[in-house]
C-alpha cells in the first residue's frame, strides 16, 4: 500500500501482462505497460459488462440493481445512450458555475483550521471539500448530507473486522437516493440531479433512463466524484510537500497550478487500476493471449510511470509534458468527472498554498497511513503543521 509504484515497476520490467490473484483471491490478468494499457482502455473487445465474466472470476464489489446499472458496468449502446444523456446535464457551464462556491468552501474550511497550527488535512480539508461540492452539484441540502466518506470507505476499503459494514452502507445509500430523487421530483431545483430527473421523466423515446439507471447514475456521480477527488487533493498536497523545489515554483507563480495538476495526477493519481474488464473473445495483449471472460486489470499506476513514455517517471516535474497520461482513463470510459476533479484540485491547492506559506508534514513520510485498497490510492490521514 505504501509503495505500489515500486511493485508495478518490477512487474512492468518483468513483462507486459501477468496472471495474478485479484483483490478477492480470484484469478485476474494485470497489464502494466503504457502502450498496452492505452490500447486496451479503448478496445471494444474488452467489456465492462459483468455478464461477460467467467464464473468464479474477479468482478469487483457487488451492488443491488438499483445502484449497479451505472456507466462502469456498461458497454455501447447502453453506455453511449446514458453518457450522452448525462453529458447534456453535466455541462462545462454548470461545472464553471461551481468555481466560486468551491473557493468559498475551501476558504471556510481553512478558516476553521487556521488557528490550530496543526491539522489532519484529509479529515479537515481534502474530504469535506469534495463532499460539499458534489452535494452542491446534485442539490443535496447541507442538513441532509450524510456520511458519504463512511459509505465509500466501506465499499472501497472494507474493514475485515466489520464484514457487514459494506452491506449496511449499500442499504443506507439506497434509502438516501430514493428519498432524494423523490424530493427532487416534487421540488426540482437548478441542480444536476433535477436536470437528470427531467431527462428521465420528460423523454419518452428509446433513449430515456430507467429508474434504476437514474439512481445508479446519481450514485456513481456522488461515489466517484467524492472518492477520486479526496484522494487527488491529498496525494497532490503530499507530493508538493515532499518536493520543496516544485512547491516553490507554484508559490512563485500560482498561475501554473492548472498545468501542475496534470503532472500531480500523473505522479500519484487516485486510481491504481482501471475498472475491471472482460474479453469478449480470446484476446492478445502484450504478446499474451487472455481467454474470453477472464478478468483484465489495466494498471494506470504502472502505465503513467512507464519510462518508455515518461522519462524519469518517478520524478515529480511540474514542467513535464504530460500529454496522453492515463491517470483519469482514456477512450469512451474516460472519467466523466475529470473537469470537476481538476477544478476542485486547482482551487484546493491554490487556497491552501496562499493561506499557509510554511505548510509542512508533521510526521515522517514513513509514518503516513494509506487506505487498505488495491484500487484506490489515497491517504487515511495527512498530518501537517503551518
Characterize the structure shown.
It is a single chain. The protein is mainly α and 386 residues long. The chain has a domain of 270 residues: Cytochrome p450. 48% of the residues lie in helices and 8% in strands. The chain has 16 helices and ten strands. The strands form four sheets. It has a three-stranded mixed beta sheet with strand order 1-2-8, covered by helices on one side. The chain has a three-stranded antiparallel beta sheet with strand order 4-10-9. A two-stranded antiparallel sheet has the order 3-5. A hairpin with a 2-residue loop joins strand 6 and strand 7. The longest helix has 31 residues.
What's the CATH architecture of the domain at 63-268 and 322-385? Orthogonal Bundle
Q: Please name the CATH topology of the domain at 63-268 and 322-385.
A: Cytochrome p450
What class do helices, strands and sheet pairing give? mainly alpha
Helix content: 40-55%
Main sheet record = 3 strands, mixed
Query: What do the pLDDT scores average to?
Result: 91
How would you write the strand order of the largest sheet?
Answer: 1-2-8
CATH class of the domain at 63-268 and 322-385: Mainly Alpha
CATH superfamily of the domain at 63-268 and 322-385: Cytochrome P450
Radius of gyration: 21 Å
* N- to C-terminal distance: 27 Å
Shape: globular
- Give the ordered list of helices and strands: HEEHEHHHHEHHHHHHHHEEEEHHEE
The low-confidence runs, each spanning 5 or more residues with pLDDT under 50, are none
* Count, helices: 16
The tally of strands reads 10
Chain oligomer state: single chain
